Amino acid sequence: MAYWRIDPLFYLKPEHDTRAKVELKLWPDALVHWDMLRDIERRLTSNEFRSARMPYDPTSDRGRDRTKPRERKALPTRVVENPHGTPFTFKRKGPAAEPAVDPRAALPAVVFEAVSGGRPAGT
Fold first, then answer.
1. Model pTM?
2. Residue 66's CB: how many other CB atoms inside 10 A?
3. What is the pLDDT of residues 24-59, one digit of tens each?
4. Is the dihedral of CA 18, 23, 24, 27 positive or negative?
5. How many other CB atoms sit within 10 Å of the CB of residue 36?
6. Is the Cα torsion angle 38, 43, 62, 121 positive or negative in sign?
């Protein structure tokens, strides 16, 4: 659960995909998060966790699928009237289009497995 709450998809973006970029461009805690994510991934893939007592499904975390990027909504267009009475439209620039990243290809497969409780698979 901690892994998905840190938001590993954020760190898949090209501007945050290496430790050096995170250290250079983001806030100090982001580097701690980066390191924690990599450590959890390493420990999951080598089956180092002794138990999996807390059930957790990353595709249904309080109604949110954390395995998919969040949809960004376009900003609304603002219309104002100028002193001459004709409307003027301000078009706001929406969020920049981000390159599509397939989380299932970029992250270890084990992080997508739902934890049902008890011992982890393979133990």
1. 0.65
2. 23
3. 999 888 999 999 999 999 998 888 877 777 788 899
4. positive
5. 14
6. positive
